[in-house]
UniProtKB/TrEMBL annotation:
PANTHER family: ALANINE--GLYOXYLATE AMINOTRANSFERASE 2-LIKE, PTHR45688. Keywords: Photorespiration, Pyridoxal phosphate. CDD domains: OAT_like (cd00610). It comes from Psophocarpus tetragonolobus. The keyword Nucleotide-binding does not apply. It catalyses: glyoxylate + L-alanine = glycine + pyruvate. Belongs to the class-III pyridoxal-phosphate-dependent aminotransferase family. Its cofactor is pyridoxal 5'-phosphate. One of its GO terms (biological process) is photorespiration. GO terms for cellular component: mitochondrion. It holds the Pfam family Aminotran_3. One of its GO terms (molecular function) is alanine-glyoxylate transaminase activity. It comes from the Eukaryota. This is alanine--glyoxylate transaminase.
Length: 450
């Protein structure tokens, strides 16, 4: 591996111009907040940066710190702020609804909730039209699993290794990365070999991977399963695209075994992948249950499980209730998000700018042996760092170092993957080509100095 310093690469130019200046910050200093965080917040909080930023304002694809410095946010609150920070239409919808009615339960009728349910159904194919609202992706997946178990009468769930579906009692079982698992029982969950074209056991041969799903059905269950759950692109797992042909073949096997197919669109859904509104559409499948969260509220806690009227009936055998799920302020935000995506053609932008950014990241891959793989779609891109391309040795330290240095240059990105050596680039969908250039220039400069 060539790791000599290359002083010929110059630092990136200034951030693209942006017509907004935050109000002067008059709050407590970062040290004070950090001290409170250490004392009063759970120690489980993730540590990406040596010194976390004190982020005090956000506008579209930018965040501002307490000193008024602007950062290009290419992680978007973990692939969540899809319309951009504080989008005026989303803010207006939230304010308007907050002034009208902040909370209403499922006991009453409310237009904000019904209108959003209808708008969400209109974005989905087939007969996927009945929504249950939740507050998070974890809750949505917990509920999807429950519905599948009730509907099929089976307990067995198949999920993919390296997946992330949440951290609740049931979802932590389906999540399949040791770093996200505490030692709680995960009864009835089977983890299939991950169809990961870069690190997977069978390269990009989707057909070989899918045999494992059949093996699980044959040898790990009574022959009937409740559900198969999968992301269209694994997000937390390090932006892993599934091998071609895998998902339709896996869906066939699961349906023959009486199971339902759950698409976890918490991260890949809502226009993020650019080519389609939902990640599963790129695989040519129609799921039985779709789970949504993150982007759908642009940062406001909102999740949903959407399924067919027939499957939805499974939940009527007992009462099912969620105090905050489908809160009118959140659903008003959800409706505004769908409208902004359409009005500003954000899906098209995710496709065009995302394709351009991927091309530019691939140029870096040609230049630096440290980059083992560039992958993903639209505004869901991954860059995997390895110290040896043949052995694919994860370059964890370099990953952290580059992230930290890019932050100093004004660019925020995420990281993930089992080894923590994959940059996750999931910006707001309004990211521009100029932003993409700035990000790549910052990464180029940082890599050149390793
Ligand atoms: N599913 C996927 C694909 C996710 O990426 C996540 C979170 O990152 C979840 C589920 C859990 O969502 P939440 O953190 O809102 O509970």
């Amino acid at each position: 591996i060539q790791r000599t310093k290359d002083d010929a690469v110059s630092p990136p130019n200034k951030l693209p111009p942006f017509d907004y200046s935050p109000a002067p910050y008059a709050g407590p200093a970062s040290d004070e907040i950090l001290a409170k965080r250490r004392e009063y917040l759970s120690p489980s909080i993730l540590h990406f940066y040596k010194t976390p930023l004190n982020v005090v304002e956000g506008r579209r694809q930018y965040l501002f710190d307490d000193k008024g410095r602007r950062y290009l946010d290419a992680f978007a609150g973990i692939a969540t702020v899809c319309c951009g920070h504080c989008h005026p239409d989303v803010v207006a919808a939230i304010v308007e609804q907050t002034n009208r009615l902040q909370h209403s339960t499922v006991l009453y009728l409310n237009p904000a909730i019904a209108d959003f349910a209808q708008a969400l159904a209109s974005k989905l194919p087939g007969n996927l039209k009945v929504a249950f609202f939740t507050n998070s992706g974890t809750e949505a997946n917990e509920l999807a699993i429950l519905i599948a178990r009730l509907y099929t009468g089976s307990h067995d769930i198949i999920s993919l290794r390296n997946s992330y579906h949440g951290n609740g009692g049931g979802t932590m079982g389906t999540t399949a990365q040791s770093i996200w698992k505490y030692n709680i029982p995960q009864s009835g969950v089977h983890h299939a070999v991950n169809p990961d074209p870069y690190r997977g056991l069978f390269g990009s041969d989707g057909e070989k991977y899918v045999r494992d799903v059949q093996e699980i059905v044959n040898f790990g269950t009574s022959g009937n399963v409740a559900a198969f759950i999968s992301e269209a692109i694994q997000g937390v797992g390090g932006i892993v695209e599934l091998a071609p042909g895998y998902l339709p073949a896996a869906y066939d096997i699961v349906r023959k075994a009486g199971g339902l197919c759950i698409a976890d669109e918490v991260q890949a859904g809502v226009a993020r992948t650019g080519s389609h509104f939902w990640g599963f559409e790129a695989h040519g499948v129609v799921p039985d249950i779709v789970t949504v969260a993150k982007s759908i509220g642009n940062g406001i806690p909102l999740g949903a499980v959407v399924t067919t009227p027939e499957i939805a009936k499974a939940l009527t055998r007992r009462s099912y209730f969620n105090t905050f799920g489908g809160n009118p302020v959140c659903t008003a935000a959800g409706l505004a998000v769908l409208r902004v995506i359409e009005k500003e053609k954000l899906q098209e932008n995710a496709f065009v700018v995302g394709s351009y950014l991927k091309e530019r990241l691939n140029e870096l891959k040609d230049k630096y042996a440290l980059i083992g793989d560039v992958r993903g779609r639209g505004m869901m891109l991954g860059v995997e760092l390895v110290t040896d391309r043949e052995l694919k040795t994860p370059a964890q330290n370099e990953t952290l170092h580059v992230m930290d240095q890019m932050k100093e240059l004004g660019v925020l990105i995420g990281k993930g993957g089992y080894y923590g050596n994959v940059f996750r680039i999931t910006p707001p969908l309004c990211f521009t080509k100029e932003d993409a250039d700035f990000l790549v220039d910052a990464m180029d400069y940082t890599l050149s100095r390793i």
